[in-house]
């Protein structure tokens, strides 16, 4: 009889499991495998590395504070809007129409009762040439449009 592991011809073959595969091997090779008796006591999963995984899986969750990422609107946004509007010679209805907002909403905003939504803040900043964000968020967008105008873009593309 031939040992399935080393190929040697021996009188007696021992059934063993080597890496999960059942083989008939010689007594020399038997020590490399696990005899069925020993094996059968172990759960099948035992062969594929025990799932001991007791260490908690680390879930990557970026630490993100909403107040860190969101720009803060200036405290006296209402006054700034009203003053800028008056400076531009617009009445409240005109401004509301220009930025696509209801007059009643704009009135609330100007009186500081309601914080405008971001899209309206953008429009107000653009329309009134003001900055409603702290940290000069408005300034930044102004700088951008100054340094890179559509005209520049067209020139570059030519
Ligand atoms: Zn052998």
UniProtKB/TrEMBL annotation:
It comes from the Archaea. Gene3D superfamilies: lambda repressor-like DNA-binding domains. GO terms for molecular function: DNA binding. InterPro entries: Cro/C1-type_HTH, Lambda_DNA-bd_dom_sf, MJ0586, MJ0586_N. SUPFAM superfamilies: lambda repressor-like DNA-binding domains. Residues 81-135 form the HTH cro/C1-type domain. Transmembrane segments: none annotated. Pfam families: HTH_3, HVO_2718_N. This is HTH cro/C1-type domain-containing protein. The lineage of its organism: Archaea, Methanobacteriati, Methanobacteriota, Methanomada group, Methanococci.
């Amino acid at each position: 009889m031939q040992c399935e592991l080393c190929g040697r011809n021996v009188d007696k073959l021992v059934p063993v499991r080597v890496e999960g595969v059942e083989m008939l091997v010689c007594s020399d090779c038997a020590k490399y495998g696990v005899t069925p008796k020993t094996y059968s006591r172990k759960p099948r999963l035992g062969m594929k590395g025990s799932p001991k995984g007791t260490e908690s899986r680390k879930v990557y969750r970026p630490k993100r504070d909403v107040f860190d990422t969101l720009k803060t609107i200036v405290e006296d946004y209402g006054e700034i809007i009203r003053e800028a509007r008056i400076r531009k010679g617009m009445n409240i209805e005109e401004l509301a129409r220009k930025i696509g907002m209801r007059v009643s909403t704009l009135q609330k905003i100007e009186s500081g009762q309601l914080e405008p939504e971001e899209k309206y803040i953008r429009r107000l900043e653009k329309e009134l040439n003001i900055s409603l964000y702290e940290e000069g968020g408005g300034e930044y967008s102004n700088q951008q449009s100054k340094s890179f105008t559509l005209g520049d873009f067209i020139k570059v593309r030519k």
